[in-house]
Design goal:
The structure is a single chain. The chain is α/β, with parallel strands linked by helices. The protein folds into two domains: 162 residues, Rossmann fold (3-Layer(aba) Sandwich); 80 residues, no CATH class. The protein is 38% helix and 25% strand. Strands 6-7-8-3-9-10 form a six-stranded mixed beta sheet, sandwiched between helices. The chain has a four-stranded antiparallel beta sheet with strand order 2-1-4-5, covered by helices on one side. The longest helix has 17 residues. The radius of gyration is 19 Å and the shape is globular. It binds adenosine-5'-diphosphate. Adenosine-5'-diphosphate binds next to strand 2 and helix 1. One of its GO terms (cellular component) is plasma membrane. Keywords: ATP-binding, Nucleotide-binding, Transport. It holds the Pfam family BCA_ABC_TP_C. This is Branched-chain amino acid transport system ATP-binding protein. It comes from Mesorhizobium tianshanense.
Length: 248
């Protein structure tokens, strides 16, 4: 294992009824990096992301996280090891406030029963921890707003706060900027930069200007294979990458 690596995939392959969506991919994510996975539509990004987060089982290949083989582990088990995928928006409880959502995520991490919350002292301790996480994502003034009443961008920030409640060492973000207005993109970019200070981030992202400004390492996929790897300056000049995007 490469000493700087936190996550390594070797020979990762996923076939769907004979169609090879991810084809013998080797990927190394360095500890502390913001690593982006890009590529034209149909390149296999979502499939690879689902393999790495254990939402899909690979046909062949292996995945190691912090030196440990996680190839056959379940998402909940790898979350306990510190590798966490951001929740889908639907996993945020719409009728609960931002604060309550984060508190429940903290509760999930501890695996406590609901009875536990009947203690006022414990409740106030976790409320203040939840408030701290909301401050980290810039949602302090929205603590008491129901999740369903938050703007799209703020819902995503809340989703990141509930993910941070699990105290991950590595965060996997699935298109964090999807469907966002420019103002939200700037806010979430600043947030990702901030939370990356003591964490590793791997994200699938379509918005190439976001990828250019945030990532220090980029893997370009095309037709299920790694086409190029490097920083943005390098991959954006690569003729094979240009051709894959134009030809897509
Ligand atoms: P991307 O995220 O880069 O757009 P995907 O990983 O979604 O690409 O898809 C890669 C290829 O695998 C596509 O051709 C897609 O149709 C195919 N694919 C993805 N999921 C399935 C599935 N469950 N069954 C069959 N084919 C699939």
């Amino acid at each position: 294992m490469n000493s700087g690596a936190i996550l390594e995939a070797a020979g990762l392959t996923k076939e769907f009824k004979g169609f090879v969506a991810v084809n013998n991919v080797n990927l190394t994510v360095e500890r502390g990096s913001i690593h982006a996975l890009i590529g034209p539509n149909g390149a296999g990004k979502t499939t690879l992301f689902n393999l790495l987060t254990k939402f899909l089982q690979p046909t062949h290949g292996a995945i190691r996280y912090q030196g440990r083989d996680i190839t056959r582990m379940q998402p909940a088990d790898i979350a306990r090891l510190g590798l966490v995928r951001s929740f889908q928006i639907s996993a945020v409880f719409p009728h609960m406030t931002a604060l309550e959502n984060v508190r429940i995520a903290l509760q999930r991490r501890r695996g406590d029963s609901f009875d536990f919350w009947r203690s006022e002292k414990v409740l106030s301790k976790f409320n203040s921890e939840a408030a701290g996480l909301l401050a980290d994502v810039g949602l302090t003034e929205f603590s008491d707003v129901r999740a369903s009443d938050l703007s799209y961008g703020r819902k995503r920030a809340l989703e990141i706060a509930t993910t941070l409640a699990l105290n991950p060492e590595m965060l996997l973000l699935d298109e964090p900027m999807a469907g966002m207005a420019q103002q939200d993109i700037e806010r979430i970019s600043a947030l990702i930069r901030r939370i990356s200070k003591n964490r590793t981030i791997l994200m699938v992202e379509h918005n190439l200007s976001v990828v250019a400004s945030l990532s220090n390492r980029i893997t370009v996929l095309a037709r299920g294979k790694v086409l190029a790897e490097g920083d943005y300056a390098a991959v954006s000049k690569d003729p094979r990458v240009i051709e894959a995007y134009i030809g897509a």
